[in-house]
Amino acid sequence: MFSLLPTLVFLTSWLASVLTCADTSDLVPLWRAYNGGVVDHFYTTNVTEMESALTQDGYSLEGSSAYVWTTQETGTTPLYRLFNQDKNDHFYTMSNDEIAEMLSAGWAYDTTPIAGYVYPFSICGAAPIYRMFNPTAVDHFYTMDIAEGEAASGYVNQGIAGYAVLPSVDGSAVVSSPTPYLLPSTVTASSASEATTSSCATTGDAIPLLRAYSSIGTDHFYTTNSSEMSNAVAVDAYTFEGDATFLWATQETNTVPLYRMFNQNVHRPLLHHRCQRSKRRL
């Protein structure tokens, strides 16, 4: 019996060489939230939809799980979203065969039937989106960090749901990185910041600085803590606005603290947050 592995490797290499890669500047975060009450993981690229899940449906924001495209681009395929109302479970797949199987088992296309667009193969620097399943709770959990998936208690690995490009902070593709972070699409890195030097902080350690706004308090609020952001949205009536930028949670080479201050007494009942860097030179 001969092995198909050399042929598969050849085909994957051939696909990577002949396909034009999708535009990474069009990537958007696939936000992840979790509801411990019904035990369900929920994923969406729509900030308004995520806001509703946090404020009305009992979900807590867990950050961005991957980066995908919202419209079909070269070489990409739809990542479909299904939902089983009786089991409170969202299911994501790019496979038509899996869709047929899940539809017959009680799942249906969700109100947003396409969660985004991903690569069907490991091409153009794409890395796997792993699907984990908890048969007891009937919950599907998706992550690009295989260590996170395998550490999830009660979950088993069901394979790969699709492939997504994991950009670094400066927008360049990082193959098989577990840290899917990208600058907001309207921001570009300066030539100075892109300079290669051993004194730069590690871009792979950068995390999103999440932003929210309260029209009641006329206040913008920023945090890297997804639980704190969930509380601000669910309890303090803030509206989640996505990621503002990327920074480091611990001090690294040539970085300084970004302090957060709060004034509860300015123009009561308005609440005001202010961020200010250290007086040390950057």
Automatic annotation (TrEMBL):
Keyword list, A-Z: Signal
Keyword Metal-binding carried by entry: no
Annotated ranges, domain DUF5648: 29-164, 199-267
UniProt cross-references to Pfam families, sorted A to Z: DUF5648
Secretion signal span: 1-20
Name of the protein this chain belongs to: DUF5648 domain-containing protein
